[in-house]
Amino acid sequence: MPSNDPNINPKTPAKPKSKPTPATQKHPKLYHNPLTLLRAYRDVRLSLRLSMEQHQYDFEQEYGMTITEYLDDIYAAGAEFTGTKLEHHANTMKRTAEMLRLVDKSVHLIKEHNDNEGESYYWILYYNFLSARQLDNIEEIIQAVQAHLPYVTRDNYFDRRNRALNMFASILWGFTERSGV
User: Fold this and answer.
1) By C-alpha distance, which of 102, 101, 161, 98 is closest to 129?
2) For residue 116, how far is the Cα from the chain centroid?
3) 100 lies in which domain range?
4) Confidence class of residue 142 from pLDDT cuts 50, 70 and 90?
5) DSSP 117-159
6) Integer Cα distance of 13 and 50 in angstroms
7) Structural domain includes residue 9
8) What is the pLDDT of residues 107-132, one digit of tens each?
9) Which of the listed residues 41, 44, 135, 140 has the most CB atoms within 10 Å of its CB?
């Protein structure tokens, strides 16, 4: 049955819808965005730690033993916990911990890269995103970096930060491709 829509030419076949690409997704800037990932790092690390502690506490309250003791007993008996709530939580925490480990490994590889440049990138990323205490402003970050590398100044800080983020992204996304994260 022909369409009554005047915008559709009946002689031109309709194009099939293609899969969305990062450029066509609703939030394209969130696709593999190292800045977004690093800004969430402290919160994710804390959340993972608290989640693990809560699961450990809940498990001990319910079963009267630690998760490790329970898993040792299950494995010794030859049983499995496939498809259980425990497996789901364990896999979720494992994936999150793996991503955090890849972030840490990527940042440490930067430090080993390119002598002083790599080390300056490392400290800039560390004090911006990874240190236990979030610094209040750029001046505090630069001052902390200068404790390790006095030649980093406000004048060259932002350029170095951008280069550090680019290097971080290149290393991290290479890791995630290989590991399937």
Assistant:
1) 161
2) 26
3) 34-176
4) very high
5) HHHHHHHHHIIIIISSS--SSHHHHHHHHHTT-TT--HHHHHH
6) 55
7) no
8) 888 888 766 788 889 999 999 998 88
9) 41
